[in-house]
Amino acid sequence: MMSRIILLLAFVLFASSASGIDTGKAFDDPEMQARYERMIAEVRCVTCQNQNIRDSNAFIAADLRREIRRLMGEGKSDAEIKDFLVTRYGDFVLYRPRFSGKTLALWVAPFLLVLFGSIAIFRVVRHRMSLPIDDEGQKQ
Amino acid sequence: MNRYVLPLVAVLLLIPIMILGLRSDPSELPSQYLGKPAPEFNLPTLKDPTQFISTADLRGQVSLVNIWATWCGGCRVEHGFLMQLHEEQDVPIYAINWRDNRDDALKWLAQLGDPYVASGFDADGRVGIDWGAYGAPETFLLNADGHVVYRFTGPLSAAMWEQEFVPRIAELEK
To answer: Which of A119, B46, B50, B124 has the most CB atoms in a 10 Å sphere around its CB?
Structure first.
């Protein structure tokens, strides 16, 4: 009885990971396979937006994986494949958007925020260092 | 007093940005083809695999391109409205039948009616990807030059038609 329940649980828990995601290798050449896996990990699934197409079993993710395999098979470079995707789905489809006018804020803002934060901390610390040391508490 | 001014200004600046962020729907992606020619395609039609429909057929008048499939629940929801549009005959509706089964799709049109001038049969889904589709249904509004003017995602309704399409079509036909 118990083992049946465990088996049932296993079916239920792993059902989603069992279906849809490609098993087996897309390319025989290990270098191509590595490139392919790197690529599909960086492409966002457009219907299930917080997943990449490597982990998604949505049909559109499967289609995009197939298109990437096809383009790689045709000898297209990573940049050309990214172009293909961005033309159709926009910068949004890449988890690491390319540096361009549209994505400038995305890339530059973190550095600016760190810079502003550092300046603020520097100024606060310098101000506090110029204050007289308060040893009132020690006297009592 | 002065020390509170800067943080206050910063917060006041952040509030509108955050409100904008909350209001924008991340699942609503604008089409990459707005203002550009609709992506080229050439597909056999659903009804007759020896006939083809291509981008060239869409030029010459304002038209709609509807991406649909029998596996798509939203497509069934909007089908009644598409039939109504078809009967009004203001704008021809073309279709891309996306990743579907031909028999199922033909049965669907026989049962529910066929609002389309023609449906291209995109069995492996490549044309859908070329159009930047990420779900179905999607409805594209094209001008007479075959440029994409607008894309609507999700089931079309009379209310959405009035709100999103009617003013744009009026603009195009001016």
So the answer is: B46
User: Does B32 contact A88 at a Cβ distance shorter than 8 Å?
Assistant: yes
| B134 with A90: Cβ contact below 8 A | no
Read off the pLDDT of residues A3-17 as tens digits, 9 standing for 90 and up. Answer: 777 777 766 666 554
pLDDT at A13: 64
Q: Which residues of B touch A48 (CB under 8 A)?
A: none
| Domain span including residue B98 | 32-172
Residue A138 has pLDDT above 60, yes or no: no
Helix (H, G, I), strand (E, B) or coil at B139: strand
CB contact under 8 A, B129 and A67: yes
- Name the fold adopted by A27-98: Helicase, Ruva Protein; domain 3 (1.10.8)
ipTM, interface predicted TM-score of the complex = 0.84
> For position B131, which CATH number holds?
3.40.30.10
Out of A47, A59, A89, whose CB is closest to B132? A89
User: What is the C-alpha separation between A39 and A96, in angstroms, rounded?
Assistant: 11
Which amino acid is present at A124? V
- Amino acid A99 reads F
CB of A89 within 8 A of CB of B132?
Answer: yes
Structure tokens at B142: 């094209």
Chain A: residue nearest B36 by CA?
A87
In this prediction, residue B1 carries a pLDDT of 63
**pTM of the complete model:** 0.80
Given an 8 Å threshold on Cβ–Cβ distance, is A49 in contact with B130? no
Q: What is the pLDDT of residues A22-54, one digit of tens each?
A: 667 888 899 999 999 999 999 999 888 788 999
CA dist A61 and A57 (Å) reads 6
Mean of per-residue pLDDT scores for chain A: 85
